[in-house]
Fold these 2 entries.
Entry 1:
Amino acid sequence: MLDKTFDPGAIEPVIYAAWEKSGAFACDPKSSKRPYCIAMPPPNVTGSLHMGHALNHTLQDILTRFERMRGRDVLWQPGTDHAGIATQMVVERNLAAENIDRRTLGRAKFIERVWQWKAESGGTITRQLRSLGASPDWSRERFTMDEGLSAAVRKVFVSLYKEGLIYRDKRLVNWDPKLHTAVSDLEVESRETKGSLWYIKYPVVGRDGTFITVATTRPETMLGDTGVAVNPEDERYKHLIGKNVVLPLTTRHIPIVADEHADPTAGSGAVKITPAHDFNDFEVGRRHNLPLINIFDRDAKLNDSVPERYRGMDRFAARKQVLADLEASGLLEKTEPHTLMVPYGDRSGVVIEPWLTDQWYVNAKELAKAAIDAVERGATVFVPRQWENTFFEWMRNIQPWCISRQIWWGHQIPAWYAPDGFVFVEETEEAAKAAARAHYGEDVALRRDEDVLDTWFSSALWPFSTLGWPDATPELARYYPTDVLVTGFDIIFFWVARMMMMGCKFMGEVPFRTVYIHALVRDERGQKMSKSKGNIVDPLAIVGKYGCDALRFTLTALAAQGRDVKLAESRIEGYRNFATKLWNAARFAEMNECKLDPKFDPAKAKLRLNKWIAGSLAQAALRATEALEAFEFNAAADALYHFTWGTFCDWYVEFSKPVLTGADEAARAETRATTAWVLGRLVHLLHPIMPFVTEELWKHLAGGQGGLLIKSQWPALDAELIDRDASAEMDWVVALIAQIRTVRAEMNVPPAQEIAAYVTEAGGDETAWLARHDALVRRLARLTRIHPVATAAPAKQNTIQVVVEGALLLLDLAGAIDVGKERARLQKEAKNVRAELDKIAAKLGNEQFLAKAKAEAVDEQRERQAEARAALSRLDAALARIGGA
RNA sequence: GGGCGUGUAGCUCAGUGGGAGAGCACUUCCUUGACAUGGAAGGGGUCGUAGGUUCAAUCCCUGCCACGCCCA
């Protein structure tokens, strides 16, 4: 016997273990089934589960389970990302607690400590994914620093280098002065900041008392100025172009140049040019051959290129000093408040400094071509489609990708330098040595580049490196290209774009046919969840409180395309209740000995009731299947929810009660079999969304003989099961009962009071329907009997009149009714029907409508008119009988 | 500044070229033999705004307003 409620905490771990043990998650490369593959976006190995993961993995798991049940050989490829900077920071923090600095430890020892940390703590996130019910093929779990994946990285690096698509360059990079590494444009976050705009007077050489005023947000960098720019069209400054100014606080003379970069409407119209410390100024400097003067060291402290008094100062201290000195010398004209965008490192949280260094770059512009083309010709399709615009926008304006990082944890760049600086890029040290020998005619000492690659470089290879590339494995041939990538829009640039580039380049084919982009999970007020706001909802806490299925169903139901998911706990509670509802429907079936009968064929059911529920189920199944195929997760959840609760539990189960306790043995047997059959199909249909409760119920329904639900077949319900006549009949019964209940409530008939009813003016169908379902109607509308009578007249003083489609019912209250109240009720109803009739009449009276509207639309209006007229005449007659017009 | 998206019931959101929906919240009633994590009934919306297309617009098009996100 089932318990009264489902106990997720006790049952989930047991079921998960059974799934894993059964091998249900594993793909089967040798099978004859069609393959289906999803590459899991590898979470950071340092990560812990948040709602974004929960949504992302729930959707992937739904697709995985759905396709698996539909008979595909599914590979959901799991793994984790080594997350270079993030992981190094975690381990450095741990070392700091032991008072150890990584530099004193040395590179090799440090890397050892990272691996040790990974072995101990790196499994957190994958363990957490298990408690979400995720069913990837754990036996194939990969890590981006695995030997195989590292080999792929080296091969890609070397071949891109040899093609000239990876190169070394000295240019400005985003320098993180805290982490001491370059970062890519994407790892820089611009934050709107309230600052100042300082107006500084630069004296013009040879014209005493003449100044040009520049406006700047970063006065401290003036010590690296090598020019002043004005717009060539700016009349205020035209006469000064070509003249020199004395750079205040120094003795340096720098030229005034004409450049479009200077905006005459901003600030003073003249700008200082610091080519070594500003991306725009770098370009201006290049156009005018201005020298680059680097004034910062790697900590962003001032170096020896500045006057002595500023050396060694931090950039922020230097700003104060420079301003004070300018003020003292009368060169600070004014200060205005100014809002500007300041770049911050997304990991370190400190202000990023544009800094001149040697770094490795990928020619992304070139690689982007094939990726753009692939999306243009539909080889990869984004769902929802509009994200293709975002993708194109980024890809068409893509900048060189800085891939070297000055940290230790990651794939070390396979480049070796000879003493003369010549570089040899090879997959192994031996190959580099051989190349050097060939180059110099003798062995020379080689020094390996110390930098490592951007983490996203290895993630970009994920869809094929995990399948064994560069080896030609059977898995690679079978599962690449993958079918779907499920991810959030925030990593379209970081990851999707780069996988597209690398996949097209090295596999000659896109990495995935479809990219499903889901939204961000926000809190119930629509705010992004963040630690500082304290509005984080922890998925594991939710799972503990409401069960995994409740969380999964909630995320699914809210995952409408093109909209953020706003998560309110009340929704989760509601879907937990849904799981309970399903559970109790099964409990009802069990109590009534509804057992699965393998020989039962719903198409052969005799009772209208059973034909109707089978057809309704088929309809819901078709809708859910279509929705999942189209990634309309919420629509699938919605169709199944409404069938389960609104149709099966609210009506069918109630309807079945008189049959199950009745005397007709054949009807009982058929209804029992139908109930069990519907529930059996239903747990299959709900399984991808709510895997635990359905698996547990399946065990009970099938008496342990049905195998695991996760391995079962998706129900292919024939649309032939949808029986229009049975639907019309049962819909009428439902409407009849609802109408009687409404009237009873309005007339304050106590719910427990059973009353007699009379029916008259019934059509042929309605008479038959009422006879057939007499027991159901009596039970659900709480009537003692329904007597057919020849006429409603004379309406008695103790009868209320219920107008339904195709019949008139009289409810006998066995006592005087409040005639005034009854009249008011009928008048209100008549008023509503008249209003509707007016609307229909206006339409049908419109010749344009009759001439131009589709025939079906006109017919529909005519039908509605006929129904409304019939209802109105019954209402008028009813009113006449009690003496009210 | 460029791009994208969103404005529908008190809240969170579905939805459709022709009769406005769900969940939660709210009101009233009900411990009936699956379920009070339940059942029954009910109140509540000029579908942001102004135009246009159409026989017909909440839905399609345009402008505007508001909000959100991404990029510069």
Entry 2:
Amino acid sequence: MPRPGKSSYSDQKPPYSYISLTAMAIQHSAEKMLPLSDIYKFIMERFPYYREHTQRWQNSLRHNLSFNDCFIKIPRRPDQPGKGSFWALHPDCGDMFENGSFLRRRKRFKVLRPEPPLPGGVPKGPAHPPHVVHYFHPQHPGKMQGLGTSEAAVAAAAAAAAGVGRLPQFQPYGLNGSSPSSGFKHPFAIENIIGRDYKGVIQASGLPLASVMHHLGYPVSSQLSNMVSSVWPHVGVMDSMASMPVSHEYGPFGVPMKALCHPPGQTMPAVPVPIKPTLALPPVSAIPALTVNPSQICPSTSPASSSLLEQTPSTPSEGKSALHSVLVHS
DNA sequence: TACTGTTTAAGGTATG
DNA sequence: CATACCTTAAACAGTA
């Protein structure tokens, strides 16, 4: 087994699973979601091992994307033509990796989906149905596209609001040794940033948070990344790779993220969206508010360009109500 | 047609 | 040793 950090195994197999590699790629992207081809590209650029036998590992990677609930599929918008969907990390898979390291997962991420009480008795889906999610048009919040029905989304929202469909074994773990059951939420957790009142709605809708916030006009890309990076340094390490020359070595990912990023004895989430199902939440008032300029609502395909300093004090209520209306009126 | 996505199956490895 | 996780292969369907 090659030792991470050594430069002598440049074309040997990295110690990361396909799930890890995919998560890296997705996390590294500004929008926290990537099309399949870009995931390939990311891996091949950084891990020379994967520049060969592409058929083999790309098939495996696709298998992982479909099979694992930690990956969610986001349909392209009409203004984003291209082949295939975007792939993102499920908001709840934050502590998927052991000790925040990409080297090994702590537990398989599995979403339990409640059977939506659809009239007419719809046959059950496959054993691990894909995470096909809906997107909606900010200009036409009543319209949702994607597979399935909007009724199902609403039903799922109701189910999730009732606490259904969450894995009991997916206990949160705190940053300061807080007990797993304490329900500690980092102040910069997205759900805390956007508020808990419709977090469940977002999750239940199947909409990935990055996508939801993006569509709502939240400056997901750089701002959240910046905020998150200040709290989870390893995310910053990953983001910093964007400007790093791609060597023929493993680069930052050749080093165990655990050793690289985490103080000894401290565990951190592996992804910047450490949202876990809990009942006890800190008061929203204790959360630094993420402000949004109303003029920036629904920036369609805005890339990661704005910064926190560019924001004017406001509330995300417009986007909030937009999402709400989607789920209510659809 | 190539790419993307889903699903099944089997075998290997790590962990408790 | 049982279980979970991971990898690989392959068949098949849908789509740009």
